[in-house]
What does this fold into?
Amino acid sequence: MTEHTLKVAGVAVDTRHWIGGERVASAGTFTDVSPIDGTVLGEIARGGPAEAAAAVAAAKSAFPGWAATPRAERARLLHAIADGVEKRIEELAIVETTDNGALLRSHRRGVMPRVAHNFRFFADWSLKLDHEDFETRGHTNHVSWDPAGPSVLITPWNAPLMLSTWKVAPALAAGNTVVLKPAEWTPLTASLLADIAAEAGLPAGVLNVVQGYGAEIGDALTSHPDVRRISFTGSVPTARRIAASAAPHLTPVSLELGGKSPLLVFADADLDLAVDLAVEQYDNAGQVCLAATRILVEGSVAEEFTRRFVDKTTRLQQGDPRDEATDIGPNIHPRQLEKIDGFVQRALTAGARAVIGGHPKDGQYYAPTLLTDVAQDSEIVQEEVFGPVLTLQTFADEDEAVRLANGTRFGLAATVATGDPERAERVSAQLVAGTVWINCFFVRDLQAPFGGSRHSGVGREGGTWSFDFYCDLKNTVTAPKGWKDHG
Ligand code: NAD
It folds into this structure.
């Protein structure tokens, strides 16, 4: 270990920023701790306004060259980054698990391959963007997807590299240069991504990675006049601050925020499937924006559903996320654990009943919890907990199910379990949600629009929608030869 390197399971990670193709230290640092057992992983460069200014300047100066690079060449470099990710899947997986506590087996088999896929998909999609020319009274309209400029990407800790690359890949493919700021609780894999991009031959300044706290470096990035796009995934309060900070320069902002998504279980559903879908909501210790944390069950099957749910949940293994047999790992931070327990204890005081769980366990773990006897307007039903805490409410008919499902300020996703395709169609048409899953959960195609309604977000990313955001669309109208405007 050198002064600026830490090691996780033998993998060296540079703790400095990556700005303009160079490693840059800061005067201050912050401490990175593993949620698995509280081990201190190391000291990370703590950026502020000076580092923000340097990173935006590097992105600005690299922009003309990158924007002018043919799309096919940009795509080739993105595929080279994907190759680098694939070569280092084991390293990325163990570093991410150690840093954020999510399951190693998911990182190995699902998440890191998906990170590589993010680069391949958006590289290929950028080559298909052309719009057909069209005519207006003999004039040709040609639509072009011009890169917008330096883009600031700010990401959370619950799926650090996956969510970062879901933004980095389309921004780079579009011809934008990037300043990525990962969450301060999970800074490590973004630093490895900088190494991988450099090894792949990405020119200096095209991807910059800065570390630090939102209030210190984040604000300086989002208020910078040279930034042309801001894409943010995180919480609603931070989104408000970012939107306000971007407002003076009218910088376009894409916001992917929290949720309080429902799982609607109708009596005609395959109950085992419905139970599986419900238990899946404990994935990543409940720290998933899309999680269907409000289970709504038709009254006639509620008792049987609950019996099977409890039976299945009590068989889940909670423990070290590096262990293959583990199903639920730790929560990210002592502060998060406190927040989760605060929600649960207030709900219990207000009259909720814990069917299972309802308390923290040793270390940074929280018992998978199911609360019933909760009122629709109560805090536990209305606010995002971001932990392994689900509520169960019953409904009498379809109308009530839809009313309960739509009865929060969020609108990120909804899952419907039913054996009746017509009901599925009727109900999904009425749900306010960016994504509706029928008899499935978490199936995501990168071609599809992704985002939330109401307080779950502003804008959509994915497929062409990502390029809509990262590009300035331009229509060029050309007159036919010899044409004169006679008014
Ligand atoms: P957060 O808002 O606290 O932090 C997210 C990022 O914003 C971090 O990098 C943080 O440093 C940065 N930040 C904080 N203050 C800032 C400021 N003033 N200016 C600029 N940046 C600032 O969120 P979190 O706790 O890290 O993440 C959890 C939240 O993210 C949950 O609400 C979850 O639902 C949401 N989320 C949404 C999606 C989605 O796709 N919709 C995906 C994952 C997580």
Notes: The chain has two domains: 5-257+452-475, 262-438. Residues 154-158, 163, 181, 183-184, 213-215, 218-219, 222, 233-235, 238, 241-242, 256-259, 289, 384, 386, 412, 452, 457 surround nicotinamide-adenine-dinucleotide (CB under 6 Å).
